[in-house]
Amino acid sequence: LPFLYIQGMNIHNSILIIDEAQNLTRKQMRTILTRCADNTKVIAIGDTRQVQNPQSDEENNGLNWVVKLCKGEKNYGHLVLSGKKSRGPVTDLVLKVGL
Questions:
Q1: Residues 12 and 40: beta-carbon distance below 8 Å
Q2: For the segment 20-41, what is each residue's pLDDT rounded down to a tens digit?
Q3: Secondary structure (DSSP) of 14-72
Q4: Which residue in 2, 40, 59, 62 has its CB near the most CB atoms, within 10 A?
């Protein structure tokens, strides 16, 4: 759902997937997470190196904020995926030359 549609909503018995979470501000992330009611799980996916929101940056965005605040809390998990796999040869070239 678009962000504006969830304001005022209660989300019950759901799995909520937030893609591109690094582009949310702290306020937007808080708005989404405070809508989560009983039996709701949240999966926030993002790459903090690819922030495209002019109000945020690599360190100050909704995804990093949640990670910093919730790390070590009960019912919270955090995975960092790393490796050298890319989308393909064009991406490999762009990364190699530093474009």
A1: yes
A2: 999 999 999 999 999 999 999 9
A3: -EEEETTGGGS-HHHHHHHHTTB-TT-EEEE---GGG---TT--SSSSHHHHHHHHHTT
A4: 62
